[in-house]
Design goal:
By secondary structure, the protein is an alpha/beta fold. It has 2 domains: 142 residues, Rossmann fold, CATH 3.40.50.720; 177 residues, NAD(P)-binding Rossmann-like Domain (Rossmann fold), CATH 3.40.50. It has 12 helices and 17 strands. The protein has a 7-stranded mixed sheet. The relative contact order is 0.14. Pfam families: AlaDh_PNT_C (PF01262), AlaDh_PNT_N (PF05222). Belongs to the AlaDH/PNT family. Its EC number is 7.1.1.1. The transhydrogenation between NADH and NADP is coupled to respiration and ATP hydrolysis and functions as a proton pump across the membrane.
Amino acid sequence: MAVEVLVLKESAAGERRVAATPETVRKLLAAGARVRFEPGAGLGAGIPDQAYRDAGAEPAGADARSGADVVLCVQAPPAEVLAAFKPGAVLVGILQPEAEPARAEALRGRGLRVFPLERLPRTTRAQAMDVLSSQAGMAGYKAMLIAAQLAPRFFPMLTTAAGTIRPSRVLVVGAGVAGLQAIATARRLGAQVEGFDVRPETREQVESLGGRFLDLGVSAVGEGGYARPLTDEERALQQQRLAEHLKGIDVVVCTAAVPGRPAPKIISRGMVEGMKTGAVIVDLAAETGGNCELTVPGQTIGHGGVTIAGPLNLPSLGAVHASEMYARNVCNFVALFLKDGTLSFDWNDELLARTCWPAPPAQETPAAAPAAGTSG
């Protein structure tokens, strides 16, 4: 009997993305799976049910959740949905099982084989499966567009009959995937752009996009391409120099993140109060607490003439392309264990072993691979 793959309809508020597209449905069918989709699953991403049917997928019936061998989703389903899955079913998505104790308990209690894709090792081989990178690109793009909309000024320099308009000065904090996309977007809009990151190796990337690298004399090179937490002395020096620089900035987009930890606080209340009236801060890190001390997740507030936005789930604002990228990431990951219509897990493969949560049972892990199953 063919492996049954179910594409869930997302239930989280405001979530418009979907975990499979007609393109990836065809690939799953070619791998020998039977694909079913919940009606309306792709509507938020511009995919009607008929498009899934045309690709060879079938609408899910009442028994689809209990019969699925593999379930594909974007965000973690609520507990009542998890309870409908059969024990041993495979769940793939951005699941963050340890973010909520109740969620972790529901996942464990149902005996599901869980693959939270945010745990995927960020190696060269994993790039085609890297949901964090693909979704961060959309987030950075949308964050800069929000900043341009909120800013009470033009981004580009303009020469008009009423005189010359100087370009906006934009600072992007954090030069990861989201930050670099934000820099590129600001440049396309004509702004004068700077990028700041405590990892000096990002200078070349910032400059390659036409931005100026802001060097505050603080380096925090960490592991896996992320920054390490700063020492108290380093933080004090960074804040002193950054506060002075922010006085001349019109727009700040914050994107700095440390995996598994709250977002680092980079812009303090005092810095905000030293910025010019009409300045704008868009804090892409709002979902993990924000890079700005005054950020209120999900809200846009004013403080002393400065507008501070803390938008949530920015990739969902670009659901069509975000879903296309996400679905390809998911399909590439599923291809690691779905072959010729059967499920087979090679725990010698670090992409499977390190993404699986909890770690694979010892009896399933080959003795030749003692490191398999360690958290990534």
